[in-house]
Write a structure and sequence with these properties.
97 residues; alpha+beta; Nucleotidyltransferase, domain 5; four-stranded mixed β-sheet
Length: 97
């Protein structure tokens, strides 16, 4: 019999990588995905990352984790990011799909 119990995906985007871990309701990690990205230092004391690299890393990590489970079981999402990090935008572009 196939397991249909709910799963939660946790996403952590840190300063050098995005990690996606899928948890069952008992707190067991049952699938993982990981994707790194560069930390640019254009001069001493400066650190930069293109926001697009966060998105690419996030999608890669999530795809790697979710490929290991039945996606219909995913019922919740938790996200952690780099605290004070922000991205100024000129305008918002909605992504449908």
């Amino acid at each position: 019999m196939q397991d249909s119990s709910p799963l939660v995906i946790g996403i952590d985007s840190s300063t050098t990588a995005c990690k996606a871990i899928i948890w069952d309701c008992q707190g067991n990690a049952i699938a993982k995905g990981y994707s790194s990205f560069a930390l640019l230092t254009p001069q001493p004391g400066w650190h930069e990352q293109p926001a697009e690299s966060w998105w690419v890393s996030l999608t890669q990590a999530v795809c790697r984790a979710t490929s290991q489970v039945d996606g219909k079981r995913l019922k919740a999402l938790c996200i952690a990011h780099q605290r004070e990090t922000f991205v100024p935008l000129d305008e918002w572009h909605r992504v449908d799909g």
